[in-house]
Specification:
Radius of gyration: 15 Å
Number of domains: 1
Structural class: alpha/beta
CATH architecture: 3-Layer(aba) Sandwich
Shape: globular
CATH superfamily: von Willebrand factor, type A domain
Distance between the termini: 26 Å
Number of strands: 6
Number of helices: 7
């Protein structure tokens, strides 16, 4: 395995090329990371939203090896077993991301949706969040009080989860660490 293309502590790193399904089953938290084109906006620590997300996700995987699964979404959603998030582009199919993680969330794995709250279609997102049985918290990344922040509060309320607004790297790291500990990690 070429470890230079794998984030330390990611599910692929922990499984060492072996049983990645088992590694996923042992994860305590799924980070559902928005990688749509709007994540290039620079209103988080004067950095692009995606850069703050990258820094925190990579750091947490290193600190909590094998406990964090990473899912990315823009036009479609997929698992990043190597822990590397793609460069942001495309639309924001948030409802597709929720459908993608719904089975594992309903099986008892805690999820945190990280987004700037600008989905392509809001109603399906709210419907899915309300229908989802399990643990879904919401972390907004961007400017507090914005339209995206307000929408993410609606998603959290529909899902019965918590809502956090994070404009800075340190706060995002603290929030996600708290959610991981809440999920039984650490």
């Amino acid at each position: 395995m070429n470890t230079t293309l794998v984030v330390k502590g990611s599910l692929l790193d922990v499984s060492q090329g072996g049983d990645q399904t088992q590694a996923l089953m042992e994860a305590k938290l799924i980070l559902v990371c928005d990688r749509s084109g709007s994540m290039v906006e620079s209103d988080a620590d004067s950095k692009p939203r995606y850069a703050v997300e990258d820094e925190v996700v990579k750091d947490l995987q290193g600190k909590y090896a094998g406990q964090i699964a990473v899912v990315t979404f823009s036009d479609s959603a997929y698992m990043c077993l190597d822990g590397i998030l793609p460069y942001p582009e495309g639309g924001t199919n948030m409802s597709g991301a929720l459908r993608f993680v719904q089975p594992v969330v309903e099986a008892g794995i805690h999820a945190a949706l990280i987004s700037d709250g600008l989905p392509d279609d809001k109603e399906p997102v709210l419907y899915l969040a309300k229908q989802m049985k399990g643990f879904l918290d919401v972390v907004f990344i961007g400017k507090k009080g914005s339209e995206g922040d307000k929408f993410m509060k609606e998603v959290a309320k529909a899902a019965g989860g918590s809502h956090e607004t994070n404009e800075a790297t340190k706060m995002l790291s603290k929030t996600l660490t708290h959610l991981l500990l809440k999920a039984g990690g650490g």
